[in-house]
Amino acid sequence: MTAKNKKGRPEKYCALHKPEGDTKRDYMKAQRQIKKALAAELDSIESLKVNSEYTEKLNELVTALIADPKSLSFAEVDSGKGLIKELLSITSMHYKNAFKPLQQLGDYTEQANLTIKSVLLAIHFALGTIIRSQAESEISVYETKKTSTVWFVQLLFTIARYEAFTVLAERAQIRRIRSDKNLTLRLSIKKEVDLAINSKNKLNQTSIAKKLNLSKQRVGKLIKELYQTK
After folding, report:
1. Tell me, what's the pLDDT at 191?
2. Alpha carbons 87 and 81: distance in angstroms, whole number
3. Which of 17, 120, 127, 181 has CA atoms 20 to 30 A from the CA of 197?
4. Residue 111 gets which letter from DSSP?
5. With contact defined as beta carbons under 8 Å apart, do 56 and 12 qualify?
6. Cα 127 to Cα 124: distance, rounded to the nearest angstrom
7. What is the pLDDT of residues 18-66, one digit of tens each?
8. 49 DSSP assignment
9. What's the rounded Cα separation, in Å, for the pair 27 and 42?
10. Which residues are within 8 A (CB) of 53 and not within 5 positions of it... i.e. 6 or more apart?
11. For the range 204-212, what are the long-range contacts, defined as Cβ-Cβ under 8 Å and sequence gap of 24 or more?
12. Which residue has the higher pLDDT, 178 or 225?
């Protein structure tokens, strides 16, 4: 979602979630994680400079990982039931991680007195908000008095941010697993190399590769990485 500055133009970040005090450290940590993920994904983040255009550019790069809410088509939403139906339709196709916690809303489409506000609250609760007053503050940003072409897109930006967060978290986890695997391989290879050195035997990369079920080329690359600075 977006907030408006004093001139009435939308800001890139919701005013409710700007980092202050203790939250700033977590914000900076999250920003570094995003940069690393984008660097691996887009190979372009390293060229960015921290200036007035940095936030806008970073926002564009993040949206490159997921569907841009502004590019999606949807039907007019004028009821709580219609909101659930349209939201689940879009998230099931474009924001699959967000769809998982949101799909439970489909069980309430026949509920009486289902208002747009009550569904918006339910959406934020499903995405992780716990305190009702906080959820009410969050949904207050949506301009529901206007046509749904305005406020539903604002909602989709919230969904898109959630999706981006989960996608980046998943990829960070994959990188950690790969990193751990590479560390294990390096330790195994170092053990074999040190054994050959200590016994004054000729280093046999083919033998190490067979023992560790790796290619000779892979073993050679890891040995180079291990000992190139020594």
Report:
1. 81
2. 10
3. 181
4. -
5. yes
6. 5
7. 556 666 776 677 667 666 666 655 544 444 444 445 555 556 656 667 8
8. -
9. 22
10. none
11. 212/185, 212/188
12. 225
Enter the tokens of residue 226.
């291990």
Question: What is the distance between the alpha carbons of residues 185 and 177, in angstroms, rounded to a whole number?
Answer: 12
Can you give the pTM of this predicted structure? Answer: 0.59
By the 10 Å C-beta count (0-12 exposed, 13-18 middle, 19+ buried), 146 is classed as exposed
pLDDT digits (tens, 9 = 90+) for 87-119: 999 999 999 999 999 999 999 888 888 999 999
| Spatial separation of the C-alpha atoms in residues 149 and 49, rounded to whole Å | 34
Residues 75, 78: Cα–Cα separation, whole Å: 10
Distance CA(7)–CA(4), nearest Å, equals: 8
d(CA 127, CA 134): 13
Nearest C-alpha neighbor of 72 from the set 162, 171, 148, 170: 148
Which carries the bigger pLDDT value, residue 29 or residue 77?
Answer: 77
User: In b/e form, how buried is each residue of 22-46, taking b as 16+ CB within 10 angstroms?
Assistant: eeeeeeeeeeeebeebbeebeeebe
Residue in this structure with the two tokens 């994680």, named with its chain if needed: 33
Quote the pLDDT of residue 17.
52
Q: Which two tokens stand for residue 18?
A: 């700007």
- Can you list the alpha helix ranges (DSSP code H) found in 95-147? 96-102, 116-126, 132-139
Cα–Cα distance, 31 to 12 (Å, whole number): 14
Residues 148 and 87: their CA atoms lie apart, in Å, by: 12
The tokens describing 186, both together, are: 């390096």
Q: Using CA atoms, how far apart are residues 10 and 25, in angstroms rounded to an integer? A: 25
CA 210 to mean position of chain CA atoms: 39
